[in-house]
Amino acid sequence: MNQEAHPQTGQPVGLLVDNRPAVLPGPVTLRGRFGHIEKLTAAHAAPLWRSVKGHDHIWTYMPSYGPFADETDFAAWVAKRAALNDPYVYAIVDNAGQVAGILALMALRPEHRVCEIGHVIYAPAFQRTALATEAQYLIARYAFETLRYRRYEWKCDALNTASRKAAQRLGLTFEGIFRQHMIGRGRNRDSAWFSLLDSEWPARKANFERWLSPENFDAEGRQRLSLSAMNGIGE
To answer: What is the Cα 146 distance to its own chain's centre?
Structure first.
């Protein structure tokens, strides 16, 4: 823990930081090599529905929504999501124009420069693709470098092993389990907490960019070195 002596009392205290508030997320377009992120709108509902319909398992660990009965029900939910400022939801779109999923910056505390990445839904066809990783890189870079957040959180159901593995693969640090943190769908949820700090971002950013570079993929599009390995996490 970084600390220093209080100038008057000599007691240990935290280091002084830039306490100007962070900036709230906005309707930007974040472009990468495999696709881009843009503000979620009602127009994304139809193409996103085509990507996620029939895959009820992707909603299991969402505490209060999904799966949806039909496209009309789904479209109404997307329209409500698109109107929110927290969570501030973005659509992930590949280079062919297909909507691959959504993610959000949320639990925004600009006065403390803390935010969370959450409400991540990837259509099954886009899971474990380069775009899925690139989207995480683009939104984290935006949070740290443009919006000036200093702590970037990831929380998930402690039973959601896929989400926990993803957080660590992306370079976030496991901080522990918050027991009986929530009630979702009438069930207890213990939550696993992860974080990435602004001081850690330059190294993680370099690993993201190294992983995403064309040189890291062979002619069949297979990775040569995993992001987990780059971040010092076992597969």
So the answer is: 16
